[in-house]
Amino acid sequence: STPIATFCALLTAARTGLLIKGGDVLESLAKIKIAAFDKTGTITRGEFCVEEFKAVGGRVSIQQLLYWVSSIESRSSHPMASVLVDYAQSKSVEPKSDTVTEFQIYPGEGIYGEIDGEGVYIGNKRILSRASCETVPEIEDMKGVTVGYVACKRELIGVFTLSDSCRTGSAEAIKELRSLGIKSVMLTGDSAAAAAYAQEQLGNILDEVRSELLPEDKVRIVDELKAKHGPTLMIGDGMNDAPALAKADVGVSMGVSGSAVAMETSHITLMSNDIRRIPKAVQLARRTHRTII
Ligand code: ADP
Ligand code: MG
């Protein structure tokens, strides 16, 4: 291959905020057949709004619940965490991260923290079984929102709902990929209802939607896509999807909100977080590849 053509292409991409780690990544990019998108923080902004936040079961007051949740969430870098911290502060509750004595992340499920001598679990439905919660909530997964559960001492003590919206460029990026002959699928750890809502917001343009996935499920699905469709691109923010990014032929991490691990394991970092840059990069890669041949 001609090093000059490759170098120029990498430089052009870098100018638009796309850091491509080398010429062989560019070559793989030219051959991509299918793109797998993470949902939260990738297709969606990951800028949540708190719709509802309530204590249930009467074991703790709303103030106490806000204090526990915000203090434990202040230890997390998940997009859901900061909005819960802000929400508590807006209700005059000041989170204290140093009162959280034990902290644990369960990827694709939620988090656990010890505070005031109590163990508190926060996350989706999966976290309830991890918390050995005996009171399974009646609440059905609601459309358009991500439902969060709080459990302590095997009991459900709180429920909250958060809303998020799709990035302006998401639908456009997926349409452009399609015009380049590349299919798009969504892989999310969120509920089926939240996934279906995002698909609807996009105008039902995704070829496939998979929900309630753990990080290892995302890895397995990327493998399946590779076997079924050929060269696969995966784009995510690194929250629970760093292993899938590494598994893909081309892994793209979100630069602004993305984690450091994701930037390391991925082949491309999207500094601008503008996913419309991806189809542009594919076109650039294809042009460069043609020049090289
Ligand atoms: P996605 O695959 O859409 O990017 P994630 O894998 O990041 O979603 O998260 C999956 C689910 O795990 C979230 O929808 C949420 O219910 C739960 N979760 C993850 N981290 C947290 C957290 N810090 N607090 C509460 N819930 C969390
Ligand atoms: Mg994510």
Provide a descriptive summary of the structure in words.
The structure is a single chain. This protein has 293 residues and is of the alpha/beta class. The protein is 41% helix and 24% strand. It contains twelve helices and 13 strands. The strands form two sheets. The protein has a seven-stranded mixed beta sheet, with helices on both faces. The longest helix is centred in the last third of the chain and has 16 residues, at 277-292. The radius of gyration is 20 Å and the shape is elongated. The N and C termini lie close together (7 Å). The mean pLDDT is 92. Adenosine-5'-diphosphate binds at residues 38-41, 73, 76, 78, 80-81, 108-111, 122-124, 146, 148, 188-190, 239-240.
Any key phrases for this structure?
Calcium-transporting ATPase, cytoplasmic domain N, single chain, 2 domains, 13 strands, about 290 residues, Rossmann fold, alpha/beta, binds adenosine-5'-diphosphate, binds magnesium ion
Spell out the blueprint of helices and strands.
Blueprint: H1 3-15, E1 18-20, H2 23-30, E2 34-38, H3 39-43, E3 49-55, H4 62-73, H5 79-90, E4 102-106, E5 110-115, E6 118-123, H6 125-130, E7 146-152, E8 155-163, H7 170-179, E9 183-187, H8 192-201, E10 208-210, H9 215-229, E11 232-236, H10 242-247, E12 250-254, H11 260-265, E13 268-270, H12 277-292
Helix pairs in contact: 1-12, 2-12, 4-5, 7-12
Bound molecules: adenosine-5'-diphosphate (ADP) and magnesium ion.
